[in-house]
Automatic annotation (TrEMBL):
The lineage of its organism: Bacteria, Pseudomonadati, Thermodesulfobacteriota, Candidatus Desulfofervidia, Candidatus Desulfofervidales. Keywords: Cell membrane, Membrane, Transmembrane, Transmembrane helix. The chain crosses the membrane at residues 12-39, 74-94, 100-120, 132-151, 171-193. It is found in: Cell membrane; Membrane. This is Probable membrane transporter protein. GO terms for cellular component: plasma membrane. Signal peptide: none annotated. Belongs to the 4-toluene sulfonate uptake permease (TSUP) (TC 2.A.102) family. It holds the Pfam family TauE.
């Protein structure tokens, strides 16, 4: 394990570089890698994966924010609902054995991968203001729950949802980086407090 640990920093750097451009944190790769390196899935891999996720997505969000690419009309309701529901997901995580959590993580990740590899491209929508807020709150709550449960920030789903809501692709990626930061931070803090 000691030898393989030396491979982690360059691999994580590459993951961070690629995923920050996509508006994602990279936890879908951080967590399995940490688990394969010998860390406990629930008590070590998920919290550390979320911490790396937050560092990556927040640095990207700061860069996007300086360029005024973040649409706060989406980021705030999305982020707030994620912050509120992530602790609920963390509580469920604690209540479940490790294997079901790994299974849910795998299914969630497989769904995101299938969505990306299928070639499906969402049609840009033109939702009303109330529809945008409703979508942000509902989707944010669901993804926030999963962030707490399995340590996934949900960027794979946030970007297409924001595009469907009417954001340009670049704005969707930028706003997603901020949203993923919200969910990751709430999930990480929840896991730390429950571990304590």
């Amino acid at each position: 394990m000691i030898n393989t640990l030396y491979l982690a920093p360059p691999v994580f750097f590459f993951i961070a570089f690629v995923f920050s451009m996509l508006g994602m944190g990279g936890s879908q790769l951080y967590i399995p890698i940490l688990f394969w390196l010998g860390m406990d899935f629930k008590t070590q891999a998920i919290p550390l994966g979320m911490l790396l996720n937050v560092v990556n997505s927040s640095s990207a969000a700061i860069t996007y924010g300086r360029k005024k690419l973040i649409d706060w009309r989406f980021a705030i309701p999305f982020g707030l609902s994620m912050i509120l529901l992530a602790p609920v997901g963390t509580w469920v995580n604690i209540s479940l054995p490790t294997k079901p959590v790994i299974l849910i993580f795998a299914l969630f990740t497989a769904s995101a991968a299938t969505l990306m590899l299928s070639g499906w491209r969402p049609k840009k929508g033109n939702l009303t203001s109330s529809q945008k807020i409703t979508m942000s709150i509902v989707a944010g709550g669901i993804l926030g729950f999963f962030a707490g449960l399995i340590g996934r920030g949900g960027g794979s789903f946030v970007v297409p949802l924001l595009y469907i809501a009417g954001l340009e692709a670049k704005l969707a990626a930028a706003t997603s980086a901020m949203v993923v930061t919200f969910s990751g931070l709430s999930s990480f803090v929840s896991h730390i407090f429950t571990a304590a």
